[in-house]
Amino acid sequence: MKRRTSNTASRAASEKGKRSSLRGASSNAEAKTLGAAQRRGSGADNAKNELVVSVERPARSTQQAGVDVAKSAEIERKSSPKRLNYVPKFTVRIVLAGDCGVGKSALLSRLRGDPVLLGHAPQPTIGAAFCRYRMKESDIDLKIVELSGHRAFHQKLCPATLSKKPDIVGLVYNVSDPSSLESMRTYWGPRSLNEKWIPEQTRIMLIGIVDDARSREVNIDAAKKTASGLARALKRKQVDFTEVESSKDGNVVDLFTTIGNGVALRMLTQVTGQLKKVNASALQTKAMLRKTGFSEEFTSRNKLEPLCGFMTDRSDDPELEELLDGEEDDEDDGAESASSTKRWVELRGDHLVAFASLKDVKNGALPACDIEIRPDTCRARLLGGINIELVVGSKRYVFKPPARTVAQHWLSAINGLLANAPMTVEDIQEPDIPHS
């Protein structure tokens, strides 16, 4: 019995000795690992971290590590939201304002394609109404906000608060209601000036709605004078003016299409001008235009090179004699003088040629007018804000491009030839037109 007890005690003592030796070896190994980490200059904290990692995370096989990475990537992919391939679109923001009952809501209904009953006035707008329209040909979005004509809402609502930096504010009146035009001078103009309803960079357009031409009580001359008065009161260079027959869907679509294309063309001119100044490559230009929201089709269709397109020859227009140098002409007056002639104009080298029609160009016909641009005999300037006046000796030619930016581009090109300097696309300075 004593022999068994002694054997058990000896075995317990030997096992205890083995455990103590293992603990000693482990402590020695840890001490060696810690010393090696300290010798590598990692610091005490880094050594401890490395020691913990080596103890708690034993080395795994490469295959197992790859499986874990794949699983974590799959979990992250399922938990993360789906990414949409979003292609930015150029957006034009328009705000319509005017008295009650002038026809703002009818314009938006026509634009949306909703049925509009003649002689039936729609329900008045409460606060504001919103409409979105996609211009399919230009791939441009129009965001249109209609401000209610009820003046009680104008304490908190105005064009500046309804839309973030609107591009165009359309002041709408009805040609059959003279009071709606008079309120532009007595209410909308002063309030826009005193309370800063319209941002400085926003263009203003006076829009006359024609429900029935037989009931017209406001003539075009009175509306143009009102537009000029608004420009002076609001301290603007120009307030555009146009009329639209709201009874036809096509006319309404053309109105907003013209507004959208005008804003987009000004922005396109500004962006391309900035890219030329920094000598951007073709790839950088394409990427920047795409990022801005312009489609390749719109960009290629509205390129200002080569210099060609339809212009109106206004050399014999008596209205131009009334314009002083630097005075603004009506860019969108909607009608030309009886003495004006629409021609196809091209700049071929140092010759400005004009044809009676585009068909004559395709058929190889001789130009109706061929002007050699020489520094010693020619002089060019901008007349009335948009008309290009070209004086060659004793002859005077005046052409009206379709847009102000195009006029600036043509004038820069002609002046480049008159300066007798080789002209490239990079030499043409685009007008700095602010965009909201």
UniProtKB/TrEMBL annotation:
Keyword hit for Mitochondrion: yes
Gene3D superfamilies per record: P-loop containing nucleotide triphosphate hydrolases (3.40.50.300)
One Pfam entry name: Ras
Molecular function GO labels: GTP binding; GTPase activity
Entry annotated with the keyword Zinc-finger: no
Residue numbers spanned by region Disordered: 1-74
Keywords annotated in UniProt: Mitochondrion, Nucleotide-binding
Skewed-composition ranges (Polar residues): 1-11
Protein name: PH domain-containing protein
